[in-house]
Amino acid sequence: MKDGPSSILIVKLSAIGDVVHTIPLLEVLRQNLPHARIDWLVEEEASQIIEGHEALDHIFVSRRKSWQRRFFRGEEKGVVLKEVRRFLKELRSCRYELVIDLQGLFKSGILTGVSKGKRKIGFTGSREGSSIFLTERPYVFDYDRHALDRYLTVAEYLNCTNNSWRGAIPVWDSHQIRMDKIIGEELLQGERLIAINPMARWKTKLWKPDRFAVVADRLQRELSCQIIFTGSREDRSTLDRIVGMMEGHAINLAGRTNLKELAYLYSKCRLMISTDTGPMHIAAAMGCPVVALFGPTAPWRTGPYGDGHRVVMGDVDCSPCFKKRCNHLSCMNNITVEKVFDTVKDFFLGC
């Protein structure tokens, strides 16, 4: 691409799934602008997703949540303020020809405004006044398209050729070695290794723990599958409870992996069963087929991207409602154990 920007800052702070969905745009920009400087501004929680990506020149990591927590506890206020000033000084040390706000919220808008950029662009439908920090009229975002495709419209807006992309999360030898060791120690082998990720941040996205236990037992008993449960450190007690409900044996890796190790683990799994959450997108990006349980959200917008995935939904008229609170949770409760098991069974029969 001729006459394109020589320096670009991508502002995509969170969440994990959204950062995963932005990697294809990064790769397309790099293919079209091989000599440009491309940097990324991201929050700490999702930073491992893009750390070490060969298309990136530099990553700015915002520790916003940590700073807020420490500041409002009344501890280390002076230290926190110094860290924030140092971060902002580093961000403003670079002058970009183009800054892209892909978050569309006040937290990204203000950082877009603070950054030094000749052009600052964003999309229609942004919230919390973030568009006031842009230098151009927002480009059109079609919210009925998948998030990954929506982010790729930036490439179209910039007249970039939408070349092929992989979208995989970079992992290093150290991550592979550690996870191969865990897999070996747990004697997890064979072609039917299944990861189950039962948790989500919205309560309305959750499926009942006992149903995950029953599905896991049936997969082991009837399809000879081996089961690994994944989640964060905060999820460990819930996953322990699920494993404790099972008749068979399963491994609980909640809190035992970082995001890169999790990405490699999913690449070794034959299948993943998940609610609508960040790890689901990590698995899809790493080529692991996903059976995704959807209720209040729309799979055509945020479902596992690509071919070979299966979406299971309850049959209710109010879905998707995009609500974080609900009095009846019918959309998730209407998803039966039989339906999930049969979906996995059909997947293996079709392979």
Keywords:
Rossmann fold, 351 residues, single chain, 16% strand, alpha/beta, 14 helices, globular, six-stranded parallel beta sheet
Largest sheet: 6 strands, parallel
Number of separate structural domains = 2
User: Distance N terminus to C terminus?
Assistant: 41 Å
- Computed structural class: alpha/beta
Overall mean confidence score, pLDDT: 94
Q: Give the radius of gyration.
A: 21 Å
Shape: globular
Order of helices and strands: EHEHEHHEHEHHEHEHEHEHEHEHH
Tally of individual helices = 14
The amount of beta strand, in percent, is: 15-25%
Give an overview in words.
The protein is α/β, with parallel strands linked by helices and 351 residues long. It has two domains: 7-157, Rossmann fold; 174-350, Rossmann fold (3-Layer(aba) Sandwich). Helices cover 41% and strands 16% of the residues. The protein contains 14 helices and eleven strands. Strands 8-7-6-9-10-11 form a six-stranded parallel β-sheet. Strands 3-2-1-4-5 form a five-stranded parallel β-sheet, with helices on both faces. α8 (209-223) links the parallel β6 (193-197) and β7. The longest helix is centred in the first third of the chain and has 17 residues, at 16-32. The model has no long low-confidence stretch (mean pLDDT 94).
